Amino acid sequence: MSERSISPALTWLRFCAFVLCIALAASCSTSTSTITDTADEAAPEATTEPEPTAEPEPTAEPEPTSEPEPTTEPEPDPTAEPEPETPEAEGSSLVVRVLDPGAEPRTELRLQLPASCTETMSMAQNQELNQTVGGVPVPGQGVIGQLTEIELTATQVPEGYRVESVIIAAGSSDISAPQIRGLLDAQLEPLVGLRTVETVTDRGVLVPGSFSIEDGGALGALGETVESLGETSRTVLPEEPVGIGARWEVEAVNTIQGLALTTITTYEVTDLDGAIVSLDVAQIQQVPVDATMEALPGLMVDVVEWTGGTSGTTILDLEAIAPVETTAAGSLRQVLDGGAAAGGVIDQTIDLDVTITGALGEGCAPRPTRTGL
């Protein structure tokens, strides 16, 4: 793999956030029109009968004015929702839009995390990088597999929940070629023991300024990327009550390696069973044309093209931090021009699939609705 290529580790973490998380679709708006028609006709003149005694000419009675037609209002669109014009909170980049509230009955989706409950989240991730530099193909390494386990705990606080996560295992999987497993394990080893702390609301929205990495400086730019993506690495629930068929999107803007990256995630409710929520998830990334980013320390490149997206499903337990299960697959294409310093134009495509599962530990109450999942 070329030394000038974008670090795969950074790409992996970028896609981890890509899976779980959002403004593409405009909000619907309704307008009303009032149509008032009036018809005024001249009253007929009254005639007088000849009488011996002159009678005063009767006053002509005007014909009643026609009633105005009732105001015509279009039928309200039950799916129309106003578009929030402000972020979720001061200092937050998140904007949430409900596209369709779904069928009745509807309910508010809120986290209800029990105290003293430790969970384990396991992630299996496979990716393959195909790349050319200056038009010359770079030999690939085949599919690279990564396994990560994270321990999660939550404590209720006034703003919502204080969530601590610790990476307890990180390494290559058997799918990786033997000649690169050692290198991959060496790259992932610094992640073991990494602890992050954040505060989220009962809708999964990160409280601005609450995300921190313990000893994150040891990770260098990798730590900055993890922190930058903290806001988009979770499922964000809508404010409004929703039912089956509901759709909402979440938009977030993050700065990664000097690049303004917009992530748009769309969720659709496919099933509701108590605290268990099943969702279809689709996500895209947008980058400004001609943006500049730091691909490697001291190496600035211009973004010629950046197109990417993932889609999949996730099953949430509103009484747990980690999802019951998430599966997703996607692809990202980056065309970066670093000039002579980079050896020419870097054109790379990353294909990825990921599976995430959550397990309840000791101290977690039984979940009858998880049976059979």
Structural key phrases:
373 residues, mainly beta, Lipovitellin-phosvitin complex, beta-sheet shell regions, 14-stranded antiparallel beta sheet, 3 helices, 14 strands, disordered N terminus
Residues in helix, % = under 10%
Q: What is the string of SSEs from the N terminus onward?
A: HEEEEEHEEHEEEEEEE
> What percentage of the residues does DSSP assign to strands (E)?
35-45%
| Radius of gyration from CA coordinates | 30 Å
Please write out the topology.
Elements: H1 8-20, E1 95-100, E2 118-133, E3 136-138, E4 143-157, E5 160-172, H2 178-188, E6 195-200, E7 212-214, H3 221-228, E8 247-256, E9 259-273, E10 276-286, E11 292-296, E12 299-317, E13 325-337, E14 345-360
Antiparallel strand pairs: 1-8, 2-3, 2-4, 2-14, 4-5, 5-6, 6-7, 8-9, 9-10, 10-12, 11-12, 12-13, 13-14
Describe the protein.
By secondary structure, the chain is mainly β. The protein has one domain: Roll (Lipovitellin-phosvitin complex, beta-sheet shell regions). The chain has helices spanning 8-20, 178-188, 221-228; strands spanning 95-100, 118-133, 136-138, 143-157, 160-172, 195-200, 212-214, 247-256, 259-273, 276-286, 292-296, 299-317, 325-337, 345-360. Strand 13 (325-337) and strand 14 (345-360) form a beta hairpin.
